[in-house]
Design goal:
The chain is α/β, with parallel strands linked by helices. It is built from twelve helices and twelve strands. A six-stranded parallel beta sheet has the order 3-2-1-4-5-6, sandwiched between helices. A six-stranded parallel beta sheet has the order 9-8-7-10-11-12, sandwiched between helices.
């Protein structure tokens, strides 16, 4: 690809935001079919960047502290300059990535799609911070000349889930979430009650989560003997594979629910006061949002009613 136009896409994370940006990745690749596309992302998403097929190179950004490690910033600056990018799509649009723009020499700054002052293709909508992530990123890319941005997609994410799913109909339950934001979690006893309602209808509840959710998953499994606890046994690729087969998924506002929704699994997503679904709800073919403040006040029967209204589900 010698001589190809060089394009940089910046997207760090977290998981839900990264999934929501996948439609933008696809649109940028389609808009620049012959270009050499580089993704600048965090180590957590380097593998995904390589697997998705949209990028020719993936650079990892350790996001060093400017005060504690100024040499790392100088190395990044040199790398950005040497990259000789014709255009940058800043999909992170943070204060940090704004600094990346400003630390480049004025005479060597590439075209830049973002929000930083002085960039060539600024997204200046004053309502930006009130919009859903997908909506404002579509607007931002539209200003840069990319008019057709598809929905988030994880078609490329599908790992082996053999031996994990139970026989018959099953529903994924995702009771975890950010450890530092416990207010985003529906209580374990509520999930256990929902698991009982699902089991009574012949749908096996399947609990998924990482090691950090062991105690929550164990508490639910202890109160819901029909549940299958896959805690610590599923990577995100396996979550995607299971979601493609599941009758539905029910969970908190957390990354795996974005994965489930993006692969087409009908989903019921639970929100409290800690986050706003108008800005960050998962996107998919059939997503129902239930919001209650406080979240603990949302009754399991109401969630089950929402499950029963999902198209072709349990």
């Amino acid at each position: 690809m010698a001589g190809a136009e060089r394009i940089l896409v910046i997207k760090h994370g977290g998981l839900g935001d990264w999934v929501l940006a996948t439609g933008c990745f696809a649109a940028i690749r389609r808009h620049h079919p012959a270009a050499h596309l580089t993704l600048l992302t965090t180590p957590a998403f380097a593998e995904w960047g390589a697997r998705c097929g949209w990028f020719d190179a993936v650079w990892t950004d350790e996001r060093p502290s400017l005060v504690a490690d100024p040499l790392a910033w100088l190395r990044l600056r040199r790398r950005l300059i040497d990259g000789e990018f014709a255009r940058v799509y800043d999909l992170q649009t943070s204060g940090r990535t704004g600094l990346y723009f400003r630390m480049l020499p004025r005479g060597r700054r590439p075209e830049w799609s973002g929000i930083v002052a002085g960039c060539s293709h600024p997204h200046r909508n004053p309502q930006r911070n009130l919009m859903h992530t997908v909506a404002f990123q579509r607007e931002q890319l539209g200003i840069a000349g990319i008019a057709d941005v598809p929905a988030p997609t994880l078609d490329w994410l599908d790992d082996d889930s053999a031996g994990l799913a139970p026989a018959g109909a099953f529903a994924l339950l995702v009771p975890g979430g950010s450890a530092h934001r416990p207010e985003k979690r529906w209580p374990a006893e509520r999930f256990a009650a929902l698991a009982g309602l699902l089991a009574a209808r012949g749908t096996t509840p399947v609990l998924i989560g990482g090691a950090a959710e062991d105690s929550i998953l164990g508490a639910i499994a202890g109160q819901a003997p029909d549940a299958v606890n896959l805690g610590g046994r599923t990577g995100l690729g396996q979550v995607a594979a299971l979601a493609r087969r599941a009758a539905c998924a029910v969970g908190n506002d957390t990354g795996p629910m974005h994965v489930a929704a993006a692969v087409g699994c009908p989903a019921v997503v639970l929100f409290g006061a800690a986050s706003d679904p108008k800005r960050s709800a998962p996107c998919g073919e059939a997503v129902t949002v239930l919001r209650r403040v406080p979240l603990a006040g949302l009754p399991p029967r109401e969630v089950m009613d929402a499950v029963e209204q999902l198209p072709g589900r349990a």
